[in-house]
Description:
mainly alpha; 24 helices; 0% strand
Amino acid sequence: MSDPPPQPATTDSGAGDVPALPEGFLAGASAASRRACLRFAAELLCFGPGVEDLGPALAAEPEEPRLQLLMALLNLYGLDPGCQLLAGQLLDGLQGGGGLDAFGRGLLEALIPWQAGAHGLALQRLEALSAAHPEALLLLKLIEWLCFCRGQELHGPRLLDRALQLEGPFPLHPDRLAIHSFALELCGRLGEARDLAEAAIAQRSANAWADHTLAHWALRSGRFQEGLEQQQHRSPTWAATSVGLRVHNLWHLALLHMALGDQAAAAGVLDGLIPSAPEGETTAPTGELIDVIALGWRLELAGAPQDGLWERLMPHLPPPRLDEPLLPFLAVHYAWALARADQQAGLQHLLTACDRAAAAPDPEAHWSWARGGAAIVRGVAAAGAGQWSAAASLLLPRQDRLGCGGGSDAQVQVLHQTVAAIERHACLLQ
């Protein structure tokens, strides 16, 4: 396919020039707050860098409840204990929903359990809110993210249902098309996924989330060379997206190199992704850190040791991150890095936190942690330390739960690759 002329990465122009928030939600807001809310929604839909502009808007109007609500949402996307704390403080200040319309109160009622880690309840509330407010396209992106938090492939049909229900009000919206295409890929409908991703790019050429679907399509369909060339051709447009999504798409590009047997090229991509803390911060964002760990992990499983990588990442795994890992998906990555760096104290912090999460008396803990998540983290730690027998006893009986702790189909694959490595070691010992 040929690319149309470049357009902005946000949904502020072209086919995406449609408000992603209900008009009633913005009634009574100042012109500046209204612009900030609409820009935030447009940017979050495509993982654009402009989401950060919400901060100055809130600083200018610190009592504006709509800005507070959306800032809480932005922090929840951070998947970091500090961000969770900030989100909680903002949501506490909004209890009762004063200054919010019915949509805003419904969003608040969904974000409260989200902040508490009850992702299943939050997902149910967002689905109901989206059904009541089909004009609020932003909710589709939030539903997509909560599906990620609970295991994206398992929840692909739910995401696809909501994307289809929004096809009527948003038939050509480039971000709805991109999300819809990803839902199709998660459901294994690969040809349709590719077609819809290309339709999304036709609507807005800078569409890194549609490129993300195409990377998934190439990896899952075995079209590695075609996918690599496609991603390399598209990669210059990723400069217009958020750093997190650019890194994630480059991670997928590295996986395509690995699928073609070129570990050196994948390692070269990894060298350019080693995270650093943003200005004013001490640790790298969670998403970027996870992608780097995941790529190093895969390279090691493929027989390419990453000497020195794990020690370089240790400053990005401070005690708060280990004491509140938030998702089993995050915890398994932390466990591999800590085990490879032989950081026993940090690893014990993490494992204790996982056991604590598994013992929590709530449905979400039962779904993600108690029914396998905590044991899978321990199994990954054992594998990372070369304790293959212990890893086998923990991971092999729980293979049906590997996708229940978060992550996409492509991201969870590293756990299946770790199980395969365990089985290879078992064969060698026979």
